[in-house]
């Protein structure tokens, strides 16, 4: 994935995106071509700081056979995103754009067919997505059904080999253009997550507004203003 320093987030922001938007597309290739499965994944680190993604497949998923032969894959996380229209701007000479936050991790997948690994994966993933709820749900509430369902899944732990992330969130926009985009997004409840991420990525600029009167400049191929 193409990345630039302007749109590259710090590690904490990458971890927060995966925690908040854990559904990833796990893509691999094999003799039959490409395979892709959407899966919620949990990011974890070992004592040495190595990163891993924890998840589970349905045992009936044919991608498991491909991964058994070739365990390399890429996990693609997509956070908030949306089209930004020049129709929202006071300066309508600006170009439209699409803001987004994405993380791509090259991984090596290792499956564990044991029931204990499946239970651990289910518990840990559920704890993550239920955290903070006033009446958080636990897998134990399934009762005896839990142990009848576990044989249908297989857990995996994928070692992260390389991470690339692009958070394109208006860092290259003039302050007045950014403010107009945010005002428009604030009018759409569905875009609240994108607006929050844009504000976080531009917190210092929004606080100072020192560049609000700078003349228009074109965007160069690296994402910076020329």
UniProtKB/TrEMBL annotation:
User: What top-level branch of life does the organism fall under?
Assistant: Bacteria
**Which region ranges are annotated with the description Disordered?**
206-226
Please name the source species: Tahibacter amnicola
This chain belongs to the protein called FMN-binding negative transcriptional regulator
Q: Which residue ranges have biased composition labelled Basic and acidic residues? A: 208-219
Spans through the membrane: none
